[in-house]
Amino acid sequence: PVAHCLTWDRRRRAQKSLTRSARVSNLVDALSCRVTVPQALIVDDVVTSGATVTEAIRAIEAAGGSVVGIASVAHTPPVGGPIGRAGATTR
After folding, report:
1. Residue 65's closest CA among 19, 32, 91?
2. pLDDT tens-digit profile of 34-88?
3. Distance, CA of 28 to CA of 59 (rounded, Å)
């Protein structure tokens, strides 16, 4: 079953132009979980810094739930970080 249990508790700045640390700070205590989800799979469209996923995990666990996995359509690697198997870097 699918449970849309997460809700935004407060306004946040747009994440697009923020650094990783600013993204994490921007989302601290921004989500809550309306129901206890015994086992949750978090689904996010794109994982960039991981701040949204991290906050979702915190909210689900604070409500007494357990996160068993995370699924994403895409991941944005950090600038200068490795991509692919060859370990090429982006600039």
Report:
1. 32
2. 988 899 999 998 888 888 899 999 999 999 999 999 999 988 776 555 544 444 4
3. 10
Residues 77, 59, 62, 65, CA torsion sign: negative
- Check residue 20 and give left, alpha or beta (phi > 0: left; psi -120 to 50: alpha): alpha
| Confidence (pTM) | 0.73
Q: Which residues of 61-82 are buried (b: 16+ CB within 10 A; e: fewer)?
A: eebebebeebeeeeeeeeeeee
Torsions phi, psi of 36, nearest 5?
Answer: -80, 125
